[in-house]
Design goal:
heteropentamer; A alpha/beta; B alpha/beta; C mainly alpha; A: alpha/beta; two-stranded antiparallel sheet; 30% strand; B: alpha/beta; Rossmann fold; 6-stranded mixed beta sheet; 4-stranded antiparallel beta sheet; 25% strand; binds adenosine-5'-triphosphate; binds magnesium ion
Chain lengths: 245, 240, 229, 229, 240
């Protein structure tokens, strides 16, 4: 299976070398965790999935799905798992089964360069905040400002790009995503204040699929132990993002 | 050949045929006359079941036709019909128009159908135009092709509904000529027309319809010279 | 710069263009089938079929395509396992089918009644007459509207990007999210659509012209002896 | 259950409906202005204006709306600071403008040339004749097509959800993403659009009927003494 | 009143007026005759600048009209024109049709314009229909309203381009009646018409155009009884 077209999911389809497919979804617009490079879906999430698939003796098939429908897509059996930087939240735990966390990161506030009025989360009251639909950042935004001041996007990158237009005062997103955006010159944006929280990101499978959770957890343990995880993390971030900072 | 008994046909509240009884013998040529709206077209259309009548009966060759039991398509194929507006198939050439029904209704093989078609086109003097599309033809030429098309099904009887009334006057003659020839060859025909010359010369009988009924009929000479009813006189006066 | 993005991304976008073309082609072919069936429902004598067609057309024309796509994408998944491609194609087909149905219905009803009568009087059955006499004429007459609907269908196919398909627009969204150059990337994508549609229009126009030429001049030459009043 | 979702979400969706209605209304009003201007460009004698209008219409009709929305959303931001509402409204107006322009152009050109000639011969200037004589007739004639375009515009407004607007569809997406009941939520959203469009259609039909009634029977009563040939 | 000198007008490659010279005196009624395509309409349309001529000159009341300098709208208002197809404004009532130009071109106040309009409508015998829309009128009624509409601008000269040729025969008379009345009152008029009765009875002069030029002219009696050119004879023969 190629990563361009999603096969009929469910893992039954046999891929290269007679191995079963391990189909896993991500938004694809979440650089550096998942994004396109010369058309190839790549990023941290993709490579973690590949490493896991290898350990499970399966054929890795990463695919993209809009973030706001990534959990329903899982329900609809369009893929076997979500390796899409899903933050573990109590709300989501009602909808999916989470594995052990596969990385930890922070929720961070970003503003336009030169903005002096926002220094911490307390300054966000009444300010226009952009977040991705259905994210835990949306929950943060709801806590910090008025509901009608929130703009919901399909991609964190789009939200960050809407900072310099003046349509937003701040964006809440993953620390790493924002810093990468700044580093690659996506726009005149800076991070402000301490991270709002440290979040655990985990792989999601369908409710009831306990067997898959155990299989993935086992594989995850293996790649952490044998250094594969360390290698991938170092490659993308220059550090190990499984450890608490 | 054809026996029609007490035929009644309504469109909603409007009763168009109010008990029409008519017998047409084999090889007979009947001209149907009547004012606009008197039900001439409706009668013809009932005769090959383009309309279903409400009551009465129709016998063809002694056999009674029950529209709900008989295979109407096969029956329709035996009754040729020629329309005022020709109704040629514009996306097919003249030849294709003529072979369409033999090939696709009767299952005649193409070569045989073509041969028959050429014969018929020759008969209506249209053999030169076999590969032309109807759009390229004059009205008179179209109508002659339409006649050939109907003949291709080898019908036992031909119905003509004002076959010349959509034609420019100078084109009427060529169509009437073909119809005369047909009559001479012994085709059973019912013709709705206002061409009195044709009626006098060719018809065996003239039938006058008024208000959904047959008011009067007789040999053309008698009928035209000595009409019985005032209505008939009035009608003949208006079209002369 | 747009040029840079264009040059660096074209292998990618050409591939995506191919997917868009395939998707649109399949969706529109299915749409034509659906449209034909619904058109027959609408012109049939059966009240039930009529009503079904009416409701179908009203609902499809009364709700946004993106809503339909999302409903069908998730709705179909409850019934059958479909690949993304087929889920997208079917959603688009269901949508386009309603519009194509109206085009077909209009075209069929525009064919002179005399054509059906002549066919029946020659002994053709209703389905045979439809197939051999009415539909060929109706199709020809529908071509301009159909061409127009196909262009709309091609553009509308962009919305399957939002159920995760890597068509032209889906690829554009992904690219923009990694090169951080929204505006330029989107303009490049727009250009691809524009070119596709201009090529398609060109062929539709040619087809129309050829069909128009295939037909004879509207009136046969006639001797018009002018009559002084 | 759909009913549950409907009942629990209607305060939210009614608010979103109101936003959709406002957005559509503003966009279509602007679109009419744009359309009128472009229509005049197209019928003007100036080659330059003609060309501008031609390019505008070709590009807009040749690219997907979602691409246009995204381009304008980010493109406009480089020029002026616009709220999301106005960015969305302007993008939709630019899009609808091209279609409305063609409707107006068709309607204006369908008005008999004699109307302009009569106006000019009475000493009216071209703009005065346009304003008082041609346009009122053209508008009336354009109403059915315009009504149709407005319905399309209403449905199309759903796409601004993808530049972050909390219109009906944007709200639907957000709701579904938090209640995980995609299918049902989307169906509820579809229902809102359907009702909106049915209400709108009702009024357009009424307006058309009233205008048709306002006009006299096509022909004046005339004594037709029938002449026997 | 009007002097036209060597007027030339082409449409692309086709030269329609090939040097027309014509003088019309005040209160004169000139009838313009000629075969279809001879350029009659084009000449009239040049006279109030619905078409721009290529060369030559036009003087009205001694003043030369340069289409690029003169305010043509004001000038057009002084030349009333009546068209074959009436060209009433269908979205306005009869009264509104008549007051439209006085109010919006001249700036006459509405009350005054209405009073004038009622007078004019009375003159053309249409006062009963003031509040009716044009669609409700017969052709003859429409044309009379069109005349009233033109008169409302108080033109110095009236141009009529086949004002009765789109009318059913029985409606021609009522329009000609109005035009005769107008001539009697001393209006300067140029009338393109094939109504010979009108020409003989009302016109001071008949002008015959052929192929973009004036071939012959003279008092109607002389002109009709004793045409000089073969062309003229032929033309008069064909329309009689
Ligand atoms: N399909 C129909 N539905 C309703 N009324 C019909 C239909 N066909 C015919 N009629 C009506 O039936 C009456 C008889 O029509 P028919 O066509 O048989 O008259 P006709 O004698 O052929 O007249 P014509 O000389 O005008 O062709 C007319 O009043 C016509 O309006
Ligand atoms: N706008 C135009 N563009 C091109 N050719 C034109 C135009 N108007 C008129 N003509 C041509 O100019 C010639 C003279 O036309 P004109 O209408 O003046 O003739 P006419 O004498 O009024 O004829 P008729 O009796 O038919 O009204 C005709 O050949 C006509 O086709
Ligand atoms: Mg008839
Ligand atoms: Mg003329």
């Amino acid at each position: 299976g190629s990563q361009e077209s999603a096969p009929a999911a469910g893992g039954q389809a046999s891929g290269e070398g007679g191995k079963k497919d391990f189909t896993y979804a991500m938004s694809g617009v979440y650089k550096p965790f998942s994004f396109k490079e010369n058309g190839q879906l790549t990023g941290f999430d993709v490579e973690i999935g590949q490493a896991l698939a290898e350990k499970m003796g399966m054929n890795a098939v990463p695919i993209t799905n809009p973030f706001e429908t990534i959990i329903p897509g899982l329900d609809a059996k369009k893929y076997d798992a979500v390796i899409g930087s899903l933050t573990v939240t109590p709300e989501r735990q009602k909808a999916v089964l989470f594995t052990n966390p596969y990385y930890r990161s922070g929720s961070q506030i970003f503003v336009q360069e030169g903005n002096t009025s926002i220094k911490s989360k307390e300054d966000l009251k009444g300010k226009k905040i952009g977040v991705v639909k259905a994210s835990n950042y949306l929950d943060w935004a709801k806590k910090l400002t008025d509901e009608d001041k929130i703009t919901q996007y399909d991609s964190d990158i789009t939200a960050l790009l809407d900072l310099p237009t003046g349509r937003l005062d701040a964006v809440i997103t993953d620390q790493v995503v924002g810093l990468r955006f700044i580093k690659e010159g996506g726009g005149k944006v800076i991070d402000v204040g301490e991270p709002l929280s440290f979040d655990e990101q985990a792989i999601a499978v369908r409710l009831g699929d306990q067997e898959a959770v155990e299989r993935i957890n086992k594989a995850l343990d293996e790649i952490v132990k044998d250094g594969t995880y360390e290698k991938i993390s170092q490659k993308w971030f220059g550090r190990n993002i499984l450890q608490k900072q | 050949m054809i026996e029609v008994k007490q035929l009644v046909k309504s469109f909603g509240p409007l009763t168009v045929l109010k008990g029409v009884t008519l017998t047409v013998e084999e090889k007979e040529v009947v001209v149907l006359l009547g004012a606009s709206g008197s039900g001439k077209s409706t009668l013809l259309r009932c005769l090959n079941f383009l309309e279903f009548y409400d009551s009465g009966e129709i016998r063809i060759g002694g056999q009674q036709i029950d529209p709900h039991k008989t295979n109407l398509n096969q029956f329709r194929a035996e009754v040729g019909m020629v329309f005022q507006h020709f109704n040629l198939f514009p996306h097919k050439t003249v030849l294709e128009n003529v072979i369409e029904a033999p090939v696709h209704v009767k299952g005649t093989n193409a070569a045989e159908a073509k041969q028959l078609a050429y014969e018929l086109l020759k008969k209506v003097n249209m053999q030169d135009k076999a590969d032309v599309y109807p759009d390229m033809l004059s009205g008179g030429q179209k109508q002659r092709v339409a006649i050939a098309r109907a003949l291709a099904m080898k019908p036992k009887i031909m119905l003509f509904d004002e076959p010349t009334s959509a034609l420019d006057p100078e084109l009427v003659g060529e169509v009437l000529q073909v119809m005369k020839q047909l009559a001479k060859e012994g085709m059973t025909m019912i013709v709705v027309t206002h061409e009195m010359g044709f009626a006098r010369e060719v018809a065996d009988r003239a039938v006058f319809m008024h208000d959904g009924q047959i008011l009067e009929q007789g040999p053309p000479r008698e009928f035209f010279e000595n009409p019985q009813h005032d209505r008939t006189k009035q009608f003949l006066g208006s079209i002369r | 710069m747009i040029i840079d993005i264009f040059l660096s991304s074209y292998p990618l976008f050409l591939k995506a263009t191919w997917l868009t073309v395939q998707l649109t082609a399949v969706a529109l072919m299915l749409g034509c089938v659906v449209g034909l069936v619904i058109a027959f429902f609408r012109i049939s004598d059966s009240k039930v079929l009529n009503y079904i067609a009416h409701v179908y057309i009203t609902v499809i024309r009364g709700t946004p395509l993106i809503v339909q796509i999302c409903i069908l994408y998730f709705g179909l998944a409850n019934m059958v396992t479909l690949s993304q491609f087929w889920a997208g194609a079917i959603a688009l087909a269901v949508h386009n089918g309603a519009y194509i149905a109206e085009i077909f219905r209009g075209a069929i009803q525009s064919i002179d009644r005399g054509q059906m009568e002549a066919s029946r009087s020659l002994g053709m059955s209703y389905p045979l007459a439809m197939r051999r006499i009415i539909l060929p004429q109706a199709f020809r007459r529908a071509i301009p509207s159909l061409g127009n609907q196909f262009i709309i269908g091609l553009k509308d196919s962009s919305l399957v990007a939002y159920v995760g398909m890597q068509d032209l627009w889906g690829t554009g969204l992904g690219e923009a999210a990694s090169n951080y150059k929204q505006l330029e990337t989107y303009m490049v994508v727009g250009l691809y659509y524009l070119v596709l549609i201009m090529i398609f229009s060109y062929f539709v126009n040619k087809l129309e012209a050829r069909l128009a030429k295939g037909k004879a001049p509207t009136k046969p030459a006639k001797d018009n002896t002018s009559v002084a009043a």
